[in-house]
Amino acid sequence: MYTNNSCPVITRMQNCQGNGRPDREYESYRWKPSQCDLPRFDAKKFLELMRGKTIAFIGDSVARNQMESLLCLLWQASKTVEVPRNQGNRRMHRYYFRSTSTKIVRMWSSWLVHQTPEAIDFAPEGVTKVHLDTPDENFMEFVPTFDVVVLSSGHWFAKQSVYVLNNEIVGGRLWWPDKSREAKINNIEAFGASVENIVASIVTHPNFTGLAILRSYSPSHYEGGAWDTGGSCTGKTRPLEPEQMVKNDNIDKMHEKQMTGFLRGIQKKSNKSKFVMMDITGVFSYRHDGHPGPFRSLDPNKRTQFGPDGKPPPQDCLHWCMPGPVDTWNELVLEIIRREYEGKKSSSS
Predict the structure, then answer these.
(1) Among residues 218, 225, 184, 206, which one has the least CA distance to residue 288?
(2) Rounded Cα–Cα distance for residues 331 and 23 (Å)
(3) Would residue 220 show up in a list of annotated catalytic residues for this protein?
(4) 205, 255, 288, 319: which one is catalytic?
(5) Where are the bilayer-spanning segments (predicted)?
(6) Which of 147, 162, 227, 299 is most deeply packed, by most CB within 10 A?
(7) Of the candidates 133, 148, 156, which has an alpha carbon nearest to the alpha carbon of residue 265?
């Protein structure tokens, strides 16, 4: 629906063709649900449904990946719609389509909950403290101004951090100096707690009446190590067949905790908003071919230069090539928006 050359907002690391990836079959696969049809993305339909409205992508770099995909899909309507410009700032990227007064927003929030470097109890200053029971105020203050919110998180729970609940340290990731104390929760449980909190915070916000979408955990496909230990997805050119699927306990557990957190949070609903879980984890576990892998850089040495230990250069088996599988996520978002807003129009008439 677009090419890497036709969309100027693609982050360099996701521009797989521009970085020299030799194959491109991965661009052409589409997901066919077993019990329904998923329409191709219709840029004009999206802009019309979102006339006068704002959609915000909030979360980590995978949220940015999805937001850029949406912009690229909308760019194809540029023959009749002006090319939007970023009218935002570093805190909030804000693209504006003047013809329909539609805004596409991105806000960074690594964990979706409050985080601070200040010292707490036996955790010194500098190590990130993730307050699992407090939403990230940096974006929550703007939530009432958004009509559609798409949330993305999870992968930062693999990074070094300290988990805080009720101002008490309850666990940590890659940090736990006091072996005499027992950590109460691990990073997967912390992820579930953060999801419950942010969902509850949105469905109880007195001034939010819009549509919220929680996109489920995006699967990565590192083999032979992690992102920083020589993990690779080199040479993956086709989706996995069902018999090739290998169970990934970490992805399964992160997905399970996210689902549980969502269901617990939604039970606290007290406002007029609507909240939808967009579950992509199982489907996109097949798409090990859709990541940049070694083609995350234009520098050929970063693609081919092996380290002194014989390991391949660092690869990106987490984010998604553009064009690529990530575009399907926005087909799903459009379908959710269509059902929400077309239903309201018909009921009001």
Answers:
(1) 218
(2) 24
(3) no
(4) 319
(5) none
(6) 162
(7) 133
State how far the Cα of 242 lies from the Cα of 253, in Å rounded to an integer.
Answer: 20
| Run of H or E residues at 278 | strand 274-278
Residue 46's identity, in one-letter code, is: F
- For residue 337 the two structure tokens come to 């928006």
Q: How far apart are CA 336 and CA 349, in angstroms?
A: 20
Q: Where do the structural domains in the chain lie, given as residue ranges?
A: 12-118+145-153+209-348
Nearest to 58 by CA among 95, 115, 108: 108
Residue 257 has φ and ψ, to the nearest 5°, of -65, -35
249 is an active site residue? no
Backbone angles phi, psi at 255, to 5 degrees: -65, -45
Which residue in the block uniquely carries the two structure tokens 């014989």? 310
Catalytic residue among 61, 78, 99, 279: 61
Full-prediction pTM beyond 0.70? yes
Bond prior to 323 in cis (omega within 30° of 0): yes
Query: Is 61 annotated as catalytic?
Result: yes
Paired tokens of 157: 């729970």
Give, for all 349 residues of the chain, the pLDDT tens digit: 899 988 888 999 999 999 999 999 999 999 999 888 999 999 999 999 999 999 999 999 999 999 999 999 998 765 555 577 778 887 899 999 888 999 999 999 999 999 999 999 999 999 999 999 999 999 999 999 999 999 999 999 999 999 999 999 999 999 988 777 889 999 999 999 999 999 999 999 999 999 999 999 999 999 988 877 778 898 899 999 999 998 899 999 999 999 999 999 999 999 999 999 999 999 999 999 999 999 998 876 665 566 666 666 678 999 999 999 999 999 999 999 999 998 665 444 3
Q: Annotated catalytic residue: which of 60, 136, 316, 327?
A: 316
DSSP type of residue 292:
-
Nearest to 332 by CA among 219, 240, 215, 218: 215
Contact 129, 142 (CB under 8 A): no
Given a contact cutoff of 8 angstroms between Cβ atoms, the answer to whether 298 and 268 are in contact is no
